Amino acid sequence: MRLLFLFSSFSLCLFLEAQSFDIAILQAMNNNSKIKALQIQIQKLEDDSKVASKWENPMVALGYNAFYPLNPTYRKDGMQSISITLAQKFDLFGKKFIESQKVELQKQIKILELKALKKNIVKDIKIKMVKIYQDKQRMQILKSTLQNISLFKHQINTSSSDFPLDEFYKMEILESKIKLRANQISQNQNDQIIDFNEITFQDGQKIDFADTFQRQWSKDYYKSSYELLIQRYKEQIESENISLAKRGFLSDPTLSVGYFHRENNQDFLSFSLSFSLPIYGKEYFVFQSAQKQSQIIKNKTLEIENTIKAKIKRLQNALDKKRKELSLIEQSLLPNAKKLLGLYQNNISSSKNAMRAYHQALNDLLEAELLRIDTSEKILLVLAELESIGE
To answer: Can you provide one Gene Ontology molecular function annotated for this UniProt record (predicted)?
Structure first.
């Protein structure tokens, strides 16, 4: 599909191939390097979780014992032997499981970061979509106003009456201002298309408008905030650190079994059990540190929750305000401005007051139309911002 935008004041034609919202999202997701990096990190954490759950490998030791180091070939002494020893450290207190759970929580954090990133990409695309679409609407309003001015000029040229020159010049000035504004909107739209192409890794394309905005949220919407959910997982990680610190007081035992072969005496087996003793207080300080860090994270969680609640309330207040403004514009301001313009348009005379009234009515209608578009745009941008907060 080819769309032709005609800027009457500049004779500028710009052809842009439009693409659908869903295709734009798909292209952005498939090409975004941050998404790919997070997906790899998630896969890595899956492997790390499996690694963390595994016990340490058994140790095998080969030995040769000689009572007389200066004569290692001596074979008649009972202390001389060749040995093989197998040692295994046992995760008797489930520390490996806790370590695995910590890595799993880190993976969940990365999954949430990936979801948040995708939501932000969708938000950015929606913002560009809205701005491109609203610029198109602005251009149509400006073109309509220029047509009204052109009609006014035609009436002047075909009339035998003498029109006040100052009002005529004011109309010329208004026309020039509209053309300048049209040029600015054209450039802004080009900038928005460039930004859109950067997000979707495309070239020379714009996006068709699609009304995919969510408009209702529950009172507990803040609980699904990605930032808050990530912080909750961080709390769980610190809780696991406390559990791990508690179990750190209990050392994992190592069981060793050795077989000793002797030349002139009977072979024998050796069994040993070893573990560390927490007598220097390191484990206590690790536990204290874990508790303090957990409290820091909990305090941060409360702060984030409060900030998100306030952000949602501010956005919803802004949304309510703009909706009321839009309703007032559409139900009162615009209809009356159109009626007033029609009234003066059908009764243009050579009177200076009539000319001034028509000029003012034309300008008022233009500003009312642009205000409607601006207000509608802000509503959609607030909706996009609210959507990106959470699930």
So the answer is: efflux transmembrane transporter activity
